[in-house]
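TICKET: design request
STATUS: open
ATTACHED STRUCTURE:
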């Protein structure tokens, strides 16, 4: 049967189309809550339908009345779902509402299901959300009532049709949003994260209010390394990404992420709603997300005081004001109060986080650089924190990582349980020069994150990158100024300039030799581009006449090509191991019974043992890749980690699917099916497309041969565009005129032949394009049959055939009418139905033979082969990306020497003199000079 599992790309495309329905009428910051709200409502309703079916199955022995009584009781559903969905909020169920009329009489009014709502839709959606919240107040208090589908645009609400279009979209395309229909259990959560990032990208600067870039979050999580059993807190939680990534990190380590408690607080009501939904859609039940201003009124309390946690992770809003008046628990701020105005609340957030750590707690937070050096009250606070031996590390981040702000940022790591060797010391990392450049904002690459994490974890001191500094030095020599460049100045060394070379030519050997480490990575010899000139100087070889030749020379270098090929061979060898490791993570069948009891819970609770092996497989693979690649000295440890992490990120959802439902055809790219099974069909399509192109060229030549000059346009009007229709109309008009003229038979025939020829070519093009469409449709059908078989189509045709045969039988039983007119219609209908039944029967009988002609349905083993082939190609692409970057660095180094020294000052002087001599000669010829 056809696979009905929803893929992540399908769901992402579906949600983007939902956004398209509202886009244009409002911006992303306005409509995001409606997309989230209706997605949430549909998800809960679909899950509740499954729970209802399970209840009906379990209690099928009861009478209808008894069963209905159970179904009306919310507590009945507790074993099957976390949420009760009342009648008015059910997507597919109609219901009867008892309404009191003007006379005080109670009448029963039919209410259609939400999916069929047509009038007052905004109000119906609001009431549905309110009803769900009221029925699940313990889990959804104040979450859904903050969404108002009766939003005003100008003086009126949005029209019903806008919401009807959105509902209709959720009625179509995808099966029910339940775990059993997902390729992997947390697919909905992954799609929700994708949607949050989409809204953050669309919102620009405002996006930073609820979303921290994924790579920055990953860095903070890796620095803190959360473990199962921890209580983790984000006091400015936004949409919840830091807490969710902390949980996912624990999963990656092979630990029990369910044994984790997540806490957070958010002051923006809409963002708080998004966060609560995010937790629920990620199936995270062990979270407590409060609303309100964290500085003024922390809501995560225990025993009448603010709660203490094992780990705090946060990206608080930069540089804002706060108010001390009415602030609860002021003892949190043990090191003093920053000014309430002037946007100085940053260290207030830091102090709250420090106070929220237990005696062994650790935290990482994003801060603006100003907190490191600003004076007055902030200096007093900073001094207190330094003297308390709380700061483990300060890490400078690259510029422009965050939405809509260019404020330089850093990571502040606090540790209440520092090792003895770190006592009264602070580890500084200046990582602001290593990052990837994006179109809108920069980003941390996997290798940047791996380097920061490794250096931080092992406290490795690297010149111009990291340094361990004792607090006494900070206090005595720098007066508690923590500006990172005071301790780790990564300013590049001045570019060397050889005056002699600039004046008289040559390239300093010392500068060529300084690039030798880059040459050695690829066994590249400087002799390939340089030749001896004089002592301590070289020249570019004569054949390198222009700068672009440097690139072609380097890329054609045999040792370099061999180095690249060798690295790719290493990956191929490593892949054999990786392929075998992947075989361990495939899903096993869900057990029908456990300890003799039927399994009714969702399949997500029974991901195979293979799924639990993913963390181990990941660790083994990255370790072995480093072991194989690093000794070749082309890529360093962090770059190799970047190759792996990029690759693993690209395939992680594939792996989740494999671990959940096995090797399925939906993971195989369409191109792989074509290349493996249908190459001849693809070649036929390409041949047909080539024919179309040739015919179109022939047609253009025919048009070009027509001697047509458009008339001059009237003043103020655009000239008429010369189109094929204009040319044909011109020819037709000329032919019409010539038909009235005597002696123009030859010209008439020539023009008629030209027009007929053009029409003939157009007909051929149309036929050729139809042929392409037929071939493409045939290929699509073959791919579909190869993926899913023909059972679904056989069932559809069989049902239609049964219906047709019944109609034939009914007509024959009814008998032929006597009236001539009715008799003719009867005979015609019966004949058509019989012809249809024969066609359907013929097609039904031919489906199995057709499937056999394409080699039958793809097997799980064949799927596995193609999926692994895809994964192999992806890791090769990642490796090549890094190798190409290193190759470009080699070329750039040589090109820099060309720019610096190829043209000497003497060359420029001679060129200037030549130009001046030519000018003087011109002036002399013109007798301006004697």
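STATUS: resolved
RESOLUTION: sequence designed for all positions
ATTACHED SEQUENCE:
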């Amino acid at each position: 049967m056809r696979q009905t599992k929803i893929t992540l790309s399908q769901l992402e495309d579906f949600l983007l189309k939902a956004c398209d329905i509202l886009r244009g009428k409002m911006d992303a910051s306005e409509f995001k809550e409606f997309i989230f709200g209706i997605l949430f409502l549909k998800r809960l309703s679909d899950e509740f339908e499954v729970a209802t079916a399970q209840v009906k199955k379990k209690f099928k022995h009861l009478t209808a009345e008894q069963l209905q009584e159970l179904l009306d009781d919310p507590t009945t559903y507790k074993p099957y779902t976390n949420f009760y969905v009342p009648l008015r909020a059910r997507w597919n169920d109609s219901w009867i509402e008892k309404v009191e009329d003007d006379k005080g009489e109670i009448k029963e009014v039919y209410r259609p299901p939400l999916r069929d709502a047509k009038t007052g839709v905004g109000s119906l959606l609001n009431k549905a959300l309110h009803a769900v919240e009221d029925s699940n107040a313990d889990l959804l208090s104040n979450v859904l009532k903050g969404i108002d589908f009766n939003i005003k645009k100008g003086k009126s609400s949005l029209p019903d049709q806008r919401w009807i279009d959105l509902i209709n979209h959720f009625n179509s395309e995808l099966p029910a949003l339940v775990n059993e229909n997902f390729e992997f259990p947390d697919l909905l959560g992954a799609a929700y994260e994708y949607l949050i990032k989409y809204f953050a990208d669309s919102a620009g600067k405002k996006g930073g209010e609820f979303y921290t870039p994924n790579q920055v979050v990953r860095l903070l999580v890796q620095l803190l390394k959360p473990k199962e059993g921890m209580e983790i807190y984000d006091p400015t939680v936004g949409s919840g990404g830091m807490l969710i990534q902390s949980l996912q990190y624990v999963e990656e380590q092979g630990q029990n992420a369910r044994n984790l408690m997540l806490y957070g607080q958010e002051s923006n009501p809409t963002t708080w709603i998004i966060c609560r939904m995010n937790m629920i859609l990620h199936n995270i039940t062990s979270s407590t997300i409060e609303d309100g201003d964290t500085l003024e009124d922390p809501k995560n309390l225990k025993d009448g005081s603010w709660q203490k946690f094992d780990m705090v992770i946060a990206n608080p809003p930069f540089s804002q004001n706060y108010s001390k008046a009415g602030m609860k628990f002021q003892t949190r701020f043990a090191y003093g109060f920053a000014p309430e105005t002037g946007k100085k609340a940053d260290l207030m957030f830091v102090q709250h986080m420090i106070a929220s750590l237990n005696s062994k707690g650790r935290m990482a937070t994003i801060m603006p650089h100003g907190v490191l050096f600003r004076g007055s009250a902030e200096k007093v606070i900073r001094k207190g924190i330094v003297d308390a031996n709380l700061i483990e590390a300060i890490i400078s981040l690259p510029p422009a990582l965050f939405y809509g702000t260019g404020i330089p940022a850093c990571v502040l790591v606090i540790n209440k349980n520092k090792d003895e060797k770190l006592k009264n010391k602070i580890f500084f990392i200046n990582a602001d020069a290593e990052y990837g450049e994006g179109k809108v904002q920069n980003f941390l690459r996997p290798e940047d994150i791996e380097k920061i994490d490794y250096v931080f974890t092992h406290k490795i001191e690297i010149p111009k990158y990291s340094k361990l500094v004792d607090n006494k030095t900070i206090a005595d020599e720098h007066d508690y100024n923590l500006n990172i460049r005071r301790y780790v100045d990564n300013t590049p060394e001045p570019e060397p300039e050889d005056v002699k070379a600039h004046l008289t030519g040559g390239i300093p050997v010392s500068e060529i030799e300084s690039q030798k480490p880059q040459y050695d990575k690829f066994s590249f010899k400087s002799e390939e581009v340089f030749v001896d000139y004089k002592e301590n100087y070289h020249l570019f070889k004569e054949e390198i006449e222009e700068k672009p030749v440097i690139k072609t020379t380097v890329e054609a270098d045999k040792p370099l090509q061999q180095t690249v090929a060798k690295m790719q061979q290493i990956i191929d060898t490593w892949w054999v191991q990786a392929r075998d490791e992947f075989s361990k993570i495939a899903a096993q069948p869900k057990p029908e019974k456990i300890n003799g009891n039927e399994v009714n819970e969702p399949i997500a609770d029974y991901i195979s043992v293979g799924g639990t092996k993913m963390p181990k497989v990941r660790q083994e693979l990255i370790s072995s890749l480093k072991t194989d690649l690093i000794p070749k000295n082309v890529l360093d440890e962090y770059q190799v980690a970047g190759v792996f992490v990029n690759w693993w990120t690209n395939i992680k959802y594939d792996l989740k699917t494999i671990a959940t439902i096995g090797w399925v055809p939906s993971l195989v790219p369409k191109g792989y099916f074509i290349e493996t099974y249908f190459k001849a069909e693809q070649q036929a399509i390409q041949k047909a497309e080539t024919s179309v192109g040739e015919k179109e060229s022939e047609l253009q030549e025919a048009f070009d041969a027509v001697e047509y000059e458009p008339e001059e346009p009237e003043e103020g009007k655009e000239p008429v565009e010369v189109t094929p229709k204009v040319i044909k109309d011109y020819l037709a008009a000329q032919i019409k005129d010539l038909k009235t003229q005597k002696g123009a038979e030859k010209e008439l025939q020539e023009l008629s032949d030209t027009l007929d020829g053009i029409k003939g070519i157009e007909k051929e093009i149309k036929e050729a394009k139809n042929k392409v469409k037929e071939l493409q449709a045939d290929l699509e059908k073959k791919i579909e049959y190869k993926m899913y078989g023909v059972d679904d189509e056989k069932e559809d045709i069989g049902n239609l055939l049964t219906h047709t045969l019944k109609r034939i039988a009914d007509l024959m039983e009814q008998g032929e009418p006597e009236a001539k007119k009715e008799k003719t219609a009867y005979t015609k209908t019966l004949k058509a139905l019989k012809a249809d039944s024969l066609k359907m029967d013929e097609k039904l009988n031919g489906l199995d033979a057709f499937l056999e002609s394409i080699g039958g349905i793809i097997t799980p083993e064949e799927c596995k082969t193609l999926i692994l082939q895809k994964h192999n190609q992806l890791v090769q692409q990642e490796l090549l990306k890094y190798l190409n970057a290193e190759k470009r660095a080699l070329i750039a180094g040589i090109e820099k020497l060309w720019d610096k020294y190829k043209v000497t000052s003497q060359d420029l002087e001679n060129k200037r003199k030549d130009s001046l001599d030519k000018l003087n000669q011109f002036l002399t010829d013109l007798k301006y000079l004697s």
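CLOSING REMARK: The mean pLDDT is 90. The first strand starts at residue 95 and ends at 100.
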